[in-house]
Amino acid sequence: MEFQDTLRHQGLRKRLVEGIRIKGIKDEKVLDAIAKVPRHLFMDSSFLQFAYKDQAFPIGAGQTISQPFTVAMQTFLLQVERHDKILEVGTGSGYQAAVLLEMGATVYTIERQRELYLKTQSILPQIGYNPKFFYGDGYKGLPTYGPFDKIIITAGAPVIPEDLLTQLKVGGRMVIPMGPREKQTMYVVVKTSETEYYKESHGTYVFVPMLKGTDK
Ligand code: SAH
């Protein structure tokens, strides 16, 4: 496979970024990261012509690459700082992980579908992105690698996973779409002490479901 980022791709990406800005994300650091990540390289080749539309698309194994606006919103709500240690649940195509890496974070990402985990782990470093990849159940997080400054869930969760709350630093933030399968509310969960947190809601979205266990 050839990994090309042409002037045409870059132009389309600029337009995508302006669209996201108009839809309400004004954070320049987030927009710069979206402008840098070649989204077309994260998608099935059959969908290449749609890479710079602000839409979610199938990536195989019944999963999707999130809509760029949703990625921008979750990234904005996470308030990423350089050198943040971030846990992502739901590696998928690796696009969200790449955006976080562009912002200077260290990224630990978990995927429960073996096929996606293997595929993304082999492709991403070739595009220049090196998160730490894990095959496992995001409900359990990564107890031996925590605690994390930030945690981002990229699948729709029915509840806040207890183990993830434990692995979040005091003062840390978790961004999690939560609710029934049909639609979820985007929450920011801020951990205020070892036993306390508060949450704010930020609109409704539709994600693929966060499932328990792994696929094998
Ligand atoms: N962040 C991805 C979005 C992928 S969609 C991207 O940028 O492309 C959500 C992903 O979450 C799917 O790949 C799905 O398999 C995964 N997922 C669902 N439940 C999970 C769990 N319990 N642990 C880890 N990954 C999970």
Q: What fraction of residues sit in β-strands?
A: 25-35%
Separation of termini? 28 Å
Small ligands present: S-adenosyl-L-homocysteine
Strand order of the largest sheet: 5-4-3-6-7-8-9
Instruction: Count all strands and give the number.
Output: 9
Largest sheet: 7 strands, mixed
Low-pLDDT sequence parts: none
CATH superfamily: Vaccinia Virus protein VP39
Helix/strand class: alpha/beta
**Cα Rg:** 16 Å
Assigned CATH class: Alpha Beta
- Helix fraction by DSSP (H/I, runs of at least 4): 25-40%
Give the SSE order as H and E letters: HHEEHEHEHEEHEEE
Tally of individual helices: 6
Could you name the CATH topology?
Answer: Rossmann fold
- Averaged pLDDT, please? 94
The coarse overall form would be globular
Description:
This protein is an alpha/beta fold and 216 residues long. It has one domain (7-205): Rossmann fold, CATH 3.40.50.150. It has 6 helices and 9 strands. The strands form 2 sheets. Strands 5-4-3-6-7-8-9 form a 7-stranded mixed sheet. The protein has a two-stranded antiparallel sheet with strand order 1-2. The two termini are 28 Å apart. The chain binds S-adenosyl-L-homocysteine. Pfam families: PCMT (PF01135).
Identify the notable features of this structure and list them briefly.
Rossmann fold, two-stranded antiparallel sheet, single chain, 216 residues, alpha/beta, transferase, binds S-adenosyl-L-homocysteine
Short note summarizing the structure:
The active site is at residue 66. It comes from Aquipluma nitroreducens. By secondary structure, this protein is α/β, with parallel strands linked by helices.
